[in-house]
Amino acid sequence: MSYEAGARVRVKAADPDHHTRVPRYVRGHTGVIVTAIDQWPVPDDCARGIDPPRAETCYAVRFSAADLWGSGDHAVTVDLWESYLDRA
Amino acid sequence: MTGHDDLPVAARARRLEERLIAAGLTSDDEMDEFLTRLYTRASPVNGARMVARAWTDPQYRDLLLSDGDAAAKDMGFGDLSYALRIVPNTEITHNVIVCTLCSCYPVSLLGPSPGWYKSFAYRSRTVREPRTVLAEFGLGLPDEVEITVWDSTSEARYMVLPVRPAGTEALGADELTALVTRNGLIGTALV
User: Fold this and answer.
1) CATH (domain of B172)
2) Which of A7, A56, B35, B45 could form a disulfide with A33 if both were Cys (CB 3.0 to 4.6 A apart)?
3) B131 and A74: CB-CB below 8 Å?
4) Does residue A1 lie in a domain region?
5) Is B150 within 8 Å of A58 when comparing Cβ atoms?
6) Domain ranges, residue B132
7) How far apart are CA B41 and CA B55, in angstroms?
């Protein structure tokens, strides 16, 4: 599965007990795909020594400050691997 | 200016180095050699040269925005160990870069990152209240300018393409390059 630009996605709310590149402040939040950046190994797998790690598309995902913080008129864009996301 | 050695992050980095050396994964000499090689070539002048060229060469600007690594290579800054992504400012949009998880940033094009870029305050506040943070840098943006914060959580590294200042039509490449600051490439200054 892959996401097209403009697709709405929700970041998984999971709080894994291992390394991840999902910042806590976007967990469970809905954003919009800006673009697919590239395919890279999933950092969570690399950090756990899983060999070979999954290679997945990483996306730039845009969130509105009002959604993240309840206030603010800016946007925050975070790079997130595909398995961090579900279609919203 | 606060010296890097005085920062808490320097003590943490040193403890990590000691663990890596103790584990036989590297040595002080090897790290010194790597850092010397990196830092003798890494400079914000590199990023500034790319910006100055993009201001005067529309084809290069297109390349810069569509394939940052190819644009860097075209200026002799090849072999980036990251995917370079350029975010262009306009009269009504402003971009600023942060790494909330650590302190990622395109070192080879911006030079060693400033201490404040690694600080918990900058990393936590920039995603939350960028307008206030930028004002503290002396960059007061009009309310109608929309701010986008780019959190560098992947293998991509972000660099801002500032707006070319008005009144610079007569300047040559070197003079334009000299206008561009490291803070401008991060987004904590206009240029």
Assistant:
1) 3.90.330.10
2) A7
3) yes
4) no
5) no
6) 44-186
7) 23
Minimal CA–CA distance to A43: which of A61, A23, A63?
A23
Contacts of B89 (CB under 8 A, 6+ apart): B95, B160, B161, B162, B163, B187, B190
How far is Cα B141 from Cα B29, in angstroms, rounded to an integer? Answer: 46
Interface of B with A (CB under 8 A): 83, 85, 100-101, 127-131, 143, 146-156
Q: What's the mean pLDDT when you consider all of chain A?
A: 97
Point out the residue among B85, B148, B151 whose CB comes nearest to the CB of A74.
B148
Q: Higher confidence at residue A52 or residue B80?
A: A52
Of A68, A74, A79, the CB nearest to B153: A79
Locate A46 and state its tokens.
Answer: 């690399």
Query: Are B102 and B23 contained in the same domain?
Result: no
Site from A37, A74, A80, A81 to mutate, B interface, most B CB atoms within 10 angstroms? A74
Average pLDDT, chain B: 94
Task: Give B150's contacts in chain A (Cβ within 8 Å).
Answer: 60, 77
The two tokens of residue A68 are 């993240």
Domain count along chain A: 1
- Entry pTM: 0.91
